[in-house]
Amino acid sequence: MDKEKSLKDALEKVNDGMTVMIGGFLGVGTPEAIVDGLVEKGVKDLTVIANDTAFPDKGIGKLIIKKQIKKLIASHIGTNPETGRQMNEGETEVELVPQGTLAESIRAGGAGLGGFLTPVGIGTIVEQGKKKLEVNGKEYLLELPLKADVALLKAKKADRAGNLIYSKSARNFNPMMATAADFVIAEVDEIVEIGEIDPDAVMTPGIYVDMIVRGDK
Amino acid sequence: MDKKQRRELIAKRVAKELKDGDVVNLGIGMPTMVADFIPEDVEVILQSENGFVNLGPAPEPGQEDPDIVNAGAAPVTIKPGGAFFDSAESFAIIRGGHVAATVLGALEVDEKGNLANWMIPGKMVPGMGGAMDLVTGAKRCIVAMEHTAKGGAHKILKECTLPLTGRGVVDLIVTEMGVIEVTDKGLVLKEIGPGFTVEDVQNATGAELIIDENLKEMEV
C-alpha cells in the first residue's frame, strides 16, 4: 500500500469544527506546507492541540493570525502576542496545560489509558476542577487523555508504508500525536520505498500513519 | 554593579551549585547564562525540554541547524554523547527524578518555597510551558534572579501573591545580594553579595531572613 498522497488530498481531511493535533515546538517539527494549505483553505472553528502557537509568521502562529482556531489547548503562547490578545479579548478559548501533562495526555489518548496521575500542578490553578487522589501518601492530579479527529505531523523521512523518522529536536510532540487521532497525516521531506528504512530505525511505526505528503523541501 | 554585572555574578554563583555528572535543566534568560560559568573540571549534562540531553553552546554563525534549538527556539548544538527523544520521554525524565537540578527565574518566591513565574493575571499570560513539571520533578530547584523588581519592589516575600508555578518547590535563591536557602524554619541567608550589608538585604526582602551563623561573602 502506497500512502503517499497530494497536499490537496491531505487538506480535504481537515474541515471546519474539527479537533486537530499539530506537531512542533515553537515551529520546529511543524508541518509548514499543510499549515499554509489550511490557511489558504480557510478552514475555521478548529480546536487545536499543540505545544505552543510558535510565532505570528511561523507554524501554528499563522492559524492564530487568521483566526481559524476556536479553542487552543497548549502549554505556552508567550512567543505569539496575538494568541494572548485573542485570549484576553475572549476571541479564542485557550486552555493552558503544563507541557509534560500535555505530552502525557496525548500519549494516554493514543495508548488506551483512561488518564494518569501526576504531581504536576498540585497547589496551583491547574488543579482547579480536577480530581485529586492520594497514593502512598502523596497527592496527585487525575489528568485525562486527549484525542483528535486529525493529527498533522512533520517527519524527515517516510517509506511508502508510513514508517517515520524524525529529525533531531523536531521530533517533540509528533510521535505521541501519531497515536492519538482518528486520521494521521505526516508531511515529510523525503519518501523512500518500502524496505529502505531499517526497521530498527523506525521512530513511528507506519501502522499509525494514514497518509504521507511531501513538504516543500 | 550594572545589570550585566549583576546577572553575571548570579550566573557564576549558581554554576558553583552544579556537580560533576548532574543532569541539569536551565531556564531561558539569565539561567541559560549559567552554562558559560561551569568550571572545566565539572561535567554537567544539560537537558533541553524540547527533547535532548547534552545541549551544547550556540553554533558558529552559518553553522545553525534549524532542527537543533533550545526551549527558547535559539540555535544551539548537541555535544558528543547526546541523545534526542520525544516530549513524553523528555517529561518522563523531568518528572521521574532524573534531573538533578533546574534553574529558573522568578516573579515571586516566598519563605515556604512557593514559586510564581508563569503569569500576571490580566497582563502577561505566556503559559507555564515546562516550568511546572520542572519545579515539581527536579530534585533541586534553584531560583536565579535579581533580588528586587524594577523600582525596588520585593520579589522575595512572606507569601506569593501571583498564581503559583509550584508549591513548596524552591530549595535555593541566588541573587546579586546573596544566597538564601529555603528551610522548614524559613529563609536562611547563607552568603552575602559583594558590597551589601545584612541590613541592605533584609530591606530588599519582603520576608524575615534568618542570618546563618556562618554567614560569608558570596563566593564566585
Give a nutshell description of this structure:
Chain A has 217 residues and is an alpha/beta fold. Chain A has helices at 7-12, 32-41, 61-65, 81-88, 99-110, 174-177; strands at 19-22, 46-49, 69-74, 93-96, 116-118, 132-135, 138-143, 148-159, 164-165, 181-192, 211-214.
SSE inventory with pairings:
The complex is a heterodimer of chains A (217) and B (220).
Chain A: H1 7-12, E1 19-22, H2 32-41, E2 46-49, H3 61-65, E3 69-74, H4 81-88, E4 93-96, H5 99-110, E5 116-118, E6 132-135, E7 138-143, E8 148-159, E9 164-165, H6 174-177, E10 181-192, E11 211-214
Parallel strand pairs in A: 1-2, 1-8, 2-3, 3-4, 8-10, 10-11
Antiparallel strand pairs in A: 5-7, 6-7, 8-9
Chain B: H1 3-15, E1 23-26, H2 30-33, E2 45-48, E3 52-56, E4 77-84, H3 87-95, E5 101-104, E6 108-110, E7 115-116, H4 131-137, E8 140-144, E9 156-157, E10 172-175, E11 178-183, E12 186-192, H5 198-203, E13 209-217
Parallel strand pairs in B: 1-2, 1-5, 5-8, 6-9, 8-10, 12-13
Antiparallel strand pairs in B: 2-3, 3-4, 6-7, 10-11, 11-12
Q: Sketch the topology of chain B as an H/E string, one letter per element.
A: HEHEEEHEEEHEEEEEHE
What do the pLDDT scores of chain B average to? 97
- Tally of discrete structural domains of chain A: 1
Strand content of chain A: 25-35%
Structural class of chain B: alpha/beta
Name given to the CATH homologous superfamily of chain B: Glutaconate Coenzyme A-transferase
Strand order of the largest sheet of chain B: 4-3-2-1-5-8-10-11-12-13
Helix content percent band of chain B: 10-25%
- Rg of chain A from C-alpha positions? 17 Å
Biggest interchain interface, per-side counts: A-B, 45 and 44 residues
- The average pLDDT of chain A is 97
